[in-house]
Design brief:
single chain, mainly beta, Umud Fragment, subunit A, 4-stranded antiparallel β-sheet, globular
């Protein structure tokens, strides 16, 4: 029951979040996000690929037991591909890359990103986007190997993902044993960033 309502485990096959999350890690997500707990900048989220970022894939055959596990929330639905990225921009935020220092700016405030994979720059692609309402701008920590919001700016939402796609916030690596650790949201990185324009308008 706890797994059904509160947490969910996901297998991570790719290196787009290195070195925070490594290929073949299993992460635990809180399903209280975003319905009960709001998403913040710096959160790592798992979300459905409704924008088809991963392309078409073959639907697996499922037996009654696998279907029961999916229905109960004990395993993800393989018919819905999932991705994992870090939230950089909230609704109303303007995210820009890059300034004269080579850093990303959020609402005009540059951010120093200690979670990036060593030797990786914040972004080689230049962009400036204002995040629409109920959407998020997301990026992988391994920026040179992450087809994230930057790679999908021609899609509806300018590369952002809808709030309704978010399945939960990654809170820990739970396997393999040598990798077990809590995941930080690096909230201090964004502590000086002011609220986005639309957020201010709603206050």
């Amino acid at each position: 029951m706890l797994n059904n309502w509160v947490v969910q485990r996901y297998y991570i096959p790719s290196g787009s979040m290195e070195n925070t999350i490594m290929p073949h890690d299993y992460v635990l997500t809180s399903k209280l996000v975003p319905d009960s707990i709001e998403i913040n900048r710096g959160d790592i989220v798992v979300f459905n690929d409704s924008g088809n970022w991963l392309g078409e894939h073959e639907q697996p055959e499922l037996g009654w037991f696998q279907k029961a596990l999916i229905w109960s929330g004990l395993r993800p639905d393989p018919g819905h591909q999932q991705l994992i990225k870090r939230v950089i921009g909230l609704p109303g935020d303007t995210v820009t890359c890059c300034n004269a220092s080579g850093l990303i700016e959020v609402n005009g405030t540059e951010i120093d990103e200690p979670y990036l994979k060593s030797g990786v720059v914040p972004s080689l692609a230049q962009f400036s986007v204002t995040v629409p309402e109920d959407r998020y701008w997301v990026m992988g920590d391994n920026r040179s190997n992450s087809a994230d919001s930057r790679a999908h700016q021609d899609n509806p939402g300018d590369g952002t993902i809808p709030r309704s796609d978010v399945l939960g916030k990654a809170v820990a690596v739970v396997w393999p044993f040598s990798r077990i650790q809590w995941l930080t949201d690096y909230s201090d990185v964004f502590s000086s960033v002011p609220a986005g324009a639309r957020v201010q308008d709603h206050n």
